Amino acid sequence: MKKAEIKEDPAEVTVYPNPVMRGASLHLSWKKEAVDGRINLYNIGGALIQSWMIQGGSMMRTLTMTADIAAGIYILQVVTKGGAYSQKVVVE
Fold this sequence. Notes:
The structure is a single chain. This protein has strands at residues 6-7, 13-16, 25-30, 37-43, 48-54, 60-64, 72-80, 83-91. The chain has a 5-stranded mixed β-sheet, with no helix packed on it. With 92 residues, it is an all-beta fold. The protein contains no helices and 8 strands.
């Protein structure tokens, strides 16, 4: 099994606002049309908190940070056939 390449290029995926308020929307956009995939939100301990689907052909996705997500630092990971991108997200 081939490991996904981790892309650290911040130009590939834009995440805003960061920090984001609990109960508010977090927006993701990317330069190229996305292929099917997933967006995963992990706490700093590595536990999966929430997951969303990515529809192929899209160039943006809006996520709702539900009010029950605790304030803190999280890792947002975008995973597609083309690889993966991770970014730290602060929830206030």
